[in-house]
Amino acid sequence: MAEGIVIRKAHFPGRAPLDAYGNGGFRFADMSHRGSILCLPSGIHGWEPADPDALTLEDFARVLEQAGDIEILLVGTGSDLKPLPPGLGQACRAAGISADPMSTGAAVRTYNVLLAEDRAVAAALVAVE
């Protein structure tokens, strides 16, 4: 019996540079993803923060689960720079992670450079139009 389309959680099981961003998504590894993403040691995951304009510590649970493999967390906050959510800086410092907020465009560029240098980098990137 033929199955219909199967929708799976968005996950690319590897590290890859980001080729493009904008129009509400990202391109990487000859694929595209609509929406926000987490670039982690375990791969690139679709990310759905409850409110992309008001990120919370809970939105970063998956990042903190992989803290032992991350030294730098880039937080792309959209078109404009916004402060880190309350508690995130403290939680990251306690886990040995340096967390840096910046616009999504700056975060993408910085992520690609640090990835090319084989640094222990992760990124939480809010999609921009």
TrEMBL record:
One matching Pfam family: DUF498
InterPro entries: MTH938-like_sf (IPR036748), NDUFAF3/AAMDC (IPR007523)
Protein name, as recorded: Mth938-like domain-containing protein
Upper lineage: Bacteria, Pseudomonadati, Pseudomonadota, Alphaproteobacteria, Hyphomicrobiales
